[in-house]
Amino acid sequence: MSDADVVVVGAGVAGLVAARELTARGRQVLVLEARDRVGGRTLNAAVPGATVELGGQWVGPGQDRVLALLGELGLGTFPTYDSGRHLIEFGGRVHRRRDTVPRLGPLALADVATTWRALGRAVRRVDVEAPWHSPDAAALDAQTFATWLHRHSRTRGGRRFFHSITRAVFAAEPGELSALWAQFYFASAGGPGAVVSTTGGAQQERIDGGSQRLAERLAAPLGERVVLGTPVRRIAVDDGGVTVHPRTGVAVRARRVIVAVPPALIGGVDFDPPLPPGRQALLQRLPHGAVVKANVVYDEPFWRRQGLSGQAASEDRTVSMVFDNSPAGGTPGVLVCFVEGHAATAFGALGPARRRARVLDDLAAYFGPAARRSTGYVDHDWTADPWSRGCYGAFGAPGALTRYGPVLRTPTARVHWAGAETAVRWVGYLDGAVESGQRAAGEVEAALSGSAPSPATDLVSGLNQP
Amino acid sequence: MSDADVVVVGAGVAGLVAARELTARGRQVLVLEARDRVGGRTLNAAVPGATVELGGQWVGPGQDRVLALLGELGLGTFPTYDSGRHLIEFGGRVHRRRDTVPRLGPLALADVATTWRALGRAVRRVDVEAPWHSPDAAALDAQTFATWLHRHSRTRGGRRFFHSITRAVFAAEPGELSALWAQFYFASAGGPGAVVSTTGGAQQERIDGGSQRLAERLAAPLGERVVLGTPVRRIAVDDGGVTVHPRTGVAVRARRVIVAVPPALIGGVDFDPPLPPGRQALLQRLPHGAVVKANVVYDEPFWRRQGLSGQAASEDRTVSMVFDNSPAGGTPGVLVCFVEGHAATAFGALGPARRRARVLDDLAAYFGPAARRSTGYVDHDWTADPWSRGCYGAFGAPGALTRYGPVLRTPTARVHWAGAETAVRWVGYLDGAVESGQRAAGEVEAALSGSAPSPATDLVSGLNQP
User: Fold this and answer.
1) With an 8 Å Cβ cutoff, are A175 and B399 in contact?
2) pTM for the full model?
């Protein structure tokens, strides 16, 4: 007696993709979502005249899975505005730059170029399917990315530049990340250039109507099979199936479960039997980044007339990164602002009015006094969101990948794992979320159709032996 | 209408000390414990002729709080057997040594001495009350202890020696720990010498009848105020007090709550309102070590007749550390064996029979064939214990202390924090657990008696500003 073949925990992109795939194969699926909405770490907000994104928002070349899915769902994309000069603050002064590298002296510039090439070489050596088998994996995973950067970049300017990039990419400090995880992340995207680029890279395209529409379109055909406001409390596996208990309401019985929530939330679910020690240890070593994202609205994108792209960055300001986030038509003008890493937690605690004032101060410092004449403001503190507990996503603390990485995707009995952190390509991105949902659905379908043995446990086979 | 003035979550040493202190001041206290026993990470086991310890077991000079408490409770101590030669395996051969340093060449020995002195100097500079304010705190917390060791120790032998020590002290790999956390840990104990020493150090004394008796003696006068088998599911704070909901059974109403469980377990409790982002982030950055502990029983301590202390260590074996754990009278003979860090998770998964065989193999390699003639075996896999999720305790991943350390002990509204990881002196030890329980009780008593303002939140005031 089952209520469903498969219960999916989490109606973010990963979970909804898994549900879509399994439904297409004729499986009865039920998606349980803690929030009162779908979309997970994607979130649209209406501002006067536009819909803007408060969560993950961009797609780009090489992200074939999400691009194909958008096509199937009838969702178009349009290019991120990327014309004109960028404003890069460095050493206390804002410079107009053709590229996103700050104005540095010749030594620091040469250092940036050398370190960038070294990073590219290191990233090419990463085995994205099994980063723990990469050359030097043990040594790289026993050091932070800050240590790696300081060994390769020898100038103060170069180091500060790479610290800024790290904060922008991971919403975390270089001193928190495993060097191996950082390089794995770049490698899974095809290289650091793809990660940091707008045109030609991960920030190239936006989704018509905002990125949350991806999840909404995925959820629509599932109808009442997506149950909102239903946090899962307990997952009990037995010989005959699995029982998923929400915090309140009736337990659901299924044959398999796919857990598609960020790592830090998995600790809030009681598993019976308990998760294997290797997975417990892994979950203790995947902290989340910290970011608050704000959108500021203007009557028009005044910066474009000044020959500016709307992109800005600083290593000193609360708002460390800005992009033009105006709708495809260009009106109203919208600037999307990021407060990341070290700065995010304290900033989030300020309260909406003071956050808005701080953001406008920083925008005025970048773009001049016109930036104060905003007509709308909206932000989201992902560090305070109880169903995210930090964004953009989780990263590997030192030692996590080499000691416990092999269990990242390995199913426990009847329990399968999805989510952008479990991807091989574009880990942490929308594309990685799609991949993970497809992969988990494939595992479950194989198990249900009898074409794959049920894995007994991820512990003995999956772990690296000492 | 309150069931108690204070609910304490967790009947380990920290929680029971807090309960004892508050009860002594006339407060009504209720202790809710998930396990069916008290003692947390201390655990006695009966073997033929003796009681042995499967968890934390030693006390030593300088641990004034726990020594005083043992005295008050009428519990005596006796010295850990520490006479004779130690067996140290290094480079594939077991050597009989007067000290616990392996047989190394002169270069490596000089390196060990130099690095040891450098570690001592670094440790003396740590501000144990606020390690994030120590000199070089930011740089130390942005690197792993492996990185620090490799910068200071220049020989292969020296590095391997310090890796072995780290594994023994933290049940974790040097590449997982923040260098600042490692040095804070040593500093909180008064220096690395105190941590690694038997006579004169943290392993000097054992507790009559086994260390779990400390918790049992603390719990006895509390009687039915200690409720076993009652995991806490939810802690809801309102203007009038706090409601603590167990997984099953009736919710308890109190004025304050003290949470005295290891960091990785806190994520399994729902807090309403949610814990502040800074604390969430901290909890994501305090992974637990990994250890399996075994006691092997013999008719007599045969090694003593051979001039051996029963202490053994190896950097290559599954059993990386052994101590004589015989009772005070010396009969039966007991060897206590540690499987730590990298090796523990896979070892724990082997199952009891294979674990025993592996341990006996290693003991025979250290002590000769007599070690195979055991009369009893008992072990405990702390990585698989759902109410510990790793031992000896939690450690700071890189970035944890400098970014989020200030909230480690700071109460959230009506919620106070205890546990060995929150101590200033002897963090991670029984003595630290006692200190933390006393400190939390003091906070609560001050709040209840109106002599201290209720802290609104730990977020704004506590966090380091960027």
Assistant:
1) yes
2) 0.95
The complex's ipTM? 0.94
User: Could you tell me which chain A residue has the CA closest to the CA of B263?
Assistant: A284
Question: Which residues in chain A have Cβ-Cβ distances shorter than 8 Å to B348?
Answer: 277
* pLDDT tens by residue, A90-138: 888 999 999 888 889 999 999 999 999 999 999 999 999 999 999 999 9
Q: Which of B283, B259, B366, B273 is nearest to B320 (CA)?
A: B366
Task: Tell whether the torsion through CA atoms of A220, A225, A227 and A233 is positive or negative.
Answer: negative
User: Distances in Å between the alpha carbon of A403 and those of A5, A281, B257, B289?
Assistant: 33, 9, 36, 12
Of A147, A247, A284, the CB nearest to B147: A147
Asked if A288's CB is within 8 angstroms of B284's CB, the reply is yes
What DSSP letter does each residue of A237-291 carry, written as one string? EETTEEEEEESSS--EEESEEEE-S-HHHHTTSEEESPPPHHHHHHHTT--B--E
CB A19 within 8 A of CB A220: no
The structure tokens listed for B59 are 């006390």
d(CA A255, CA A239): 10
Contacts of A332 (CB under 8 A, 6+ apart): A47, A48, A49, A50, A297, A298, A299, A300, A301, A326, A375, A376
CA distance A250 to B388: 30
Q: Give the whole-angstrom CA distance, residue A135 versus residue A128.
A: 12
Q: How many Å apart are CA B135 and CA A410, to the nearest integer?
A: 43
Nearby residues of A76 by Cβ (< 8 Å), 6 or more positions away: A70, A207, A208
Q: Which residues pair with A226 in a beta bridge?
A: A31
CA–CA distance, B317 with B363 (Å, rounded to integer)? 10
The answer, for A342 touching chain B at a CB cutoff of 8 Å, is yes
Angle at alpha carbon of residue A416, lines to A410 and A421, rounded to 5°: 70
